[in-house]
Write a structure and sequence with these properties.
Layout (H helix, E strand, L loop, with lengths): L5 E3 L2 E3 L3 E3 L9 H9 L3 E5 L14 H19 L3 E5 L7 H10 L4 E4 L18 E6 L2 H15 L6 E4 L5 E2 L14 H19 L5 E4 L5 H9 L4 E4 L1 H4 L8 H9 L5 E5 L5 E5 L2 H7 L25 H9 L23 H22 L1
Parallel strand pairs: 3-11, 4-5, 5-6, 6-7, 7-8, 8-10, 10-11
Antiparallel strand pairs: 1-2, 9-13, 12-13
Length: 364
């Protein structure tokens, strides 16, 4: 049994996998175009993208626009597949990132880290860019649908539902992360049901994409059987040849043990999941990493009282300097045992899905 296609409006992906958007340069045009070329949906992350500029005379906001434009163009030149961007609502340059992406003809925009309540206002007539909020609950889905319909006479083209096993910043409190009531297996059916009410009322299809902790082809089947139309995977794509991060960053995934995956308190005011290392230990022990905020990239960041700059820490790690930072990762990162090409990863997920599908049919 082959993968079912993922349909988002008139856009069709042969492989129902969205590659997670991983910021500060971990997922740029190289990774996104490689995933898109294999039939999935590749995502360029915009968070911290201005820090990647080599133009010293550009300010951070101007650099963000320049780098994002260049990365979208490089991705579109490299593939005819589907390429999107991930734009956090909490970015101080959110509007610039959205407007630049739409101007460059991006296929879809994923947006989380807050509710993207006004995202449709950036679209003009004739623009085909799909809008996909990232949420963590059925309540959030209902709020967005009601707001978008009342103000913009449109609904989301899809939803990504991110559970507490994801990497990076999480849309849950520290107490909710290990609470079974907030497990992705429980949230997905709730969101599917909530979205279904709007689908029936307005005669549209709003696919739900499961995200957070999805590691194997068997996992993909599991969530499709729960009502999801596809999945989003981030951690697996870090450990690929095409990932835009330094090989030393990727290797820390390969070397990780279960106990290394920890929840940290991020300067941006949210819990986050990362791979524990000496940098994180030093922060936990009360050591400060003196800095002057070079970007003010996140609206909620408490940069004046924080012991370190998370943008600098993540940028250092992406470049392979793990002494000066750390890697965000999903809870299953310790299961990564080697770095492979994107093509091989997707083929292995297909094989696992086929095997699980056969077993599922046999059991039924």
């Amino acid at each position: 049994m082959t993968f079912p296609k993922l349909k988002i409006g008139d856009m069709v992906a042969d492989v129902p996998i969205i590659q997670g958007g991983m910021g500060i340069g971990v997922s740029l045009s190289r990774l996104a175009s490689s995933v898109a070329g294999e039939g999935g949906i590749g995502i360029i992350a915009t968070a911290g993208i201005g820090a990647l500029s080599t133009e010293r005379d550009e300010g951070y906001l101007e650099a963000s626009i320049t780098v994002l434009r260049d990365e979208i163009r490089k991705a579109k030149e490299a593939t005819k597949g589907i390429v999107g961007v991930n734009i956090m609502v909490a970015l101080t340059n959110f509007a610039d990132m959205v407007e630049t992406s739409i101007a460059e003809g991006i296929d879809l925009i994923l947006s989380g880290a807050g509710l993207p309540l006004d995202l449709p206002k950036y679209l003009s007539d004739g623009v085909k860019t799909k809008l996909v909020p990232i949420i963590s609950s059925a309540k959030a889905a209902r709020v967005i649908c009601k707001r978008w319909w009342s103000r913009y006479n449109r609904l989301p083209d899809a939803f990504v539902v991110e559970g507490p096993m994801a990497g990076g910043h999480l849309g849950f409190s520290s107490e909710q992360i290990d609470d079974p009531e907030f497990a992705l297996e429980k949230i997905i059916p709730e969101v599917v049901q909530a979205v279904g009410d709007f689908e029936k009322e307005h005669g549209v299809e709003i696919p739900v994409i499961a995200a957070g902790g999805i590691f194997t082809g068997e996992d993909i089947l599991k969530y499709l059987e729960l009502g999801a139309a596809g999945v989003q995977m981030g951690t697996r794509f870090v450990a690929t040849d095409e990932c835009d991060a330094d090989d030393r960053f990727k290797q820390c995934y390969v070397n990780a043990k279960p106990e290394d995956l920890v929840i940290i308190k991020s300067p941006v005011g949210m819990p986050g999941r990362a791979i524990k290392n000496d940098f994180i230990v030093s922060v936990e022990e009360g050591q400060r990493k003196p800095f002057k905020c070079p970007y003010h990239c996140i609206t909620s960041c408490n940069c004046t009282d924080s012991p370190y700059c998370i943008a600098l820490a993540l940028a250092n790690a992406k470049r392979g300097n793990l002494k000066g930072g750390f890697a965000f990762a999903g809870k299953n990162a310790y299961r990564v045992d080697r770095i492979v090409p994107v093509k091989e990863l997707i083929a292995s997920l297909q094989e696992e899905y086929d095997r699980a599908s056969g077993n599922s049919v046999a059991k039924s």
